[in-house]
Amino acid sequence: MMLEPRIGLPLAPREVDALLARTAVVLDWVGTLAFALSGGMLGVRKGFDLFGVLFLSFVVSVAGGMMRDVLIGATPPAAMREIHYFAISMSAGVITFYWAQQIALWQRPILLVDAIGLALFAVVGAQKAVVYGIHPAMAALMGMLTGIGGGMVRDVLARDTPFVLRSDLYAVAALAGGVVVAIGHAIHGPPTLYTLLGAAVCLFLRLMAIYRGWRAPLPRATRDQTP
Amino acid sequence: MMLEPRIGLPLAPREVDALLARTAVVLDWVGTLAFALSGGMLGVRKGFDLFGVLFLSFVVSVAGGMMRDVLIGATPPAAMREIHYFAISMSAGVITFYWAQQIALWQRPILLVDAIGLALFAVVGAQKAVVYGIHPAMAALMGMLTGIGGGMVRDVLARDTPFVLRSDLYAVAALAGGVVVAIGHAIHGPPTLYTLLGAAVCLFLRLMAIYRGWRAPLPRATRDQTP
Amino acid sequence: MMLEPRIGLPLAPREVDALLARTAVVLDWVGTLAFALSGGMLGVRKGFDLFGVLFLSFVVSVAGGMMRDVLIGATPPAAMREIHYFAISMSAGVITFYWAQQIALWQRPILLVDAIGLALFAVVGAQKAVVYGIHPAMAALMGMLTGIGGGMVRDVLARDTPFVLRSDLYAVAALAGGVVVAIGHAIHGPPTLYTLLGAAVCLFLRLMAIYRGWRAPLPRATRDQTP
């Protein structure tokens, strides 16, 4: 309710919307940067060469959105038509490559920036899917895919078990953000409100996983075997 | 020949077609359910959490059809526009998660249901491809992809060697079903006939692999090395 | 400059273009054949059955172009509409399967043919992307994807670390070829010239990697750890 732009804010609605749109673009860039850094770090750790590091930076920051756009029929994907995703991820890749050891000291801040990126990608992805007429339940999944797709491809290429499948409410948080957006759209809520709310829910779950160790339930069979 | 609907059946052709269409929908659901159970079972065995199990259930049941639809240009894919694939796979995922140990006792029935799912997905996939104007040879491959795509993605995500590449006439059976449909379409045969025939051929090959150990030939180099 | 078709050649421009177009088709087939052989060889080495070997042959020769076509919106992909990719890769797969040991003796020639295939796929891929209105920087990446996509999918399916990520200027060479085409298109150069120049650059880099051991730089952290 406090986020509703039409009540109690010192700015006119149109100004608020413009401000939020600009904020969303900036956050989109921050998210792209965070994901690119996370991809680059993995490349360095695996001993890939400069090219491999740049490649992973790019893939992690755009693969989720690309898969979403292909699946909802929005081709060519946004990352193919706009150049800023490419520019940001290349910069992040070069930075990771040459300052890998310093960046490794910033694990915690990167985790936070990554959580913000996840939250934003999840709500932006779900919003784009509903705009393209996708069923709300699938739109929520598309939000999740936008958030986790890059990390999934990264893990498959680097031969890790996709970490979105095992841990830390990562995909669950992204899905929760997408669900809020899908419901908000279905009940004709104000986009600004449900988008911010979805991002907040996703961010909250992810931070609880990082700081409080929240987890999704494990299957009983597994619990029995691993005491 | 016995399957030809226009001769020797007590129903009028239109009634037969309507009956078969309804049967196909039911079998499509059965196939989706079987594939979702197979995905969920793997997730439980690998120790994934509730979310990971649901995720694998969904991916295994829809990935093949999604890849086909993207490749033949039928976007957004059917699984994005209809909700029943999602509903069935989520139900199967929850069931697998909470009753994993009981389901493990039903290995053989699941294998049979999975074979039925494979047969149906293969012929439905090939049929959809020819309807979209794809070359018959590629339509047969699209039938195969519809049948095996989910299992391939499952194995890549769970870091197994894709089992469709090594064993049990799995992909070969799906391909055979697709080939029958592609040929049937090319010679302007009655769709009901060649679809059922394709499914029967696929099912037969798969059952022979399960019960009689039929295999595709191995390369000579491998046979020499592993006596 | 020597490649510029309009000056100093004994043939009229149109004849040169027609000759080059025919040459490009032949080289495209050679590239498809080389990639199919490389996929089939891996299948034999991993002990896959006949079907698995054919499957890898096909995937390696078409996956890169299919991913490019889906991303630039050229669906259905060329390999779905034309049958010759399928025919060539199946032939290569059968040959690999039955003559695997003889082919293993030809490692060096196959590496050369593969380099030619890479060069051609890179420039053809980038060219197709610019024709579809993709931003030049992304078109260069699409050239790279066309060249390396098949190998990436092959390595993921066979559970190797994608070798394009670690070695031998493979992806870098493809990218360089794509960059030449993208720049050539951006400055409105003659297509014949920049296409041939791009292929030459890619081929040169790849041959230097094979014969002189040229490499992309490794990250400092890795260099410190592995002396």
UniProtKB/TrEMBL annotation, chains A, B, C:
Ranges for the Glycine transporter domain? 26-100, 112-184
The membrane topology of this protein is: Multi-pass membrane protein
Q: Does the keyword Electron transport apply?
A: no
Q: What's in the keyword line of the UniProt record?
A: Cell membrane, Membrane, Plasmid, Transmembrane, Transmembrane helix
Localization of this protein: Cell membrane
Which GO cellular component term is one of those annotated? Answer: plasma membrane
Chief subcellular location equals membrane
Record has Transmembrane helix as a keyword? yes
Regions crossing the membrane = 20-38, 50-71, 83-100, 112-131, 137-157, 169-187, 193-214
Using the record, list the residue span of the signal peptide; answer none if the entry has no such feature: none
Stated family: Belongs to the UPF0126 family.
PANTHER family assigned to the protein according to its UniProt record, in alphabetical order:
INNER MEMBRANE PROTEIN, UPF0126 INNER MEMBRANE PROTEIN YADS-RELATED
Name of the molecule in the record: Glycine transporter domain-containing protein
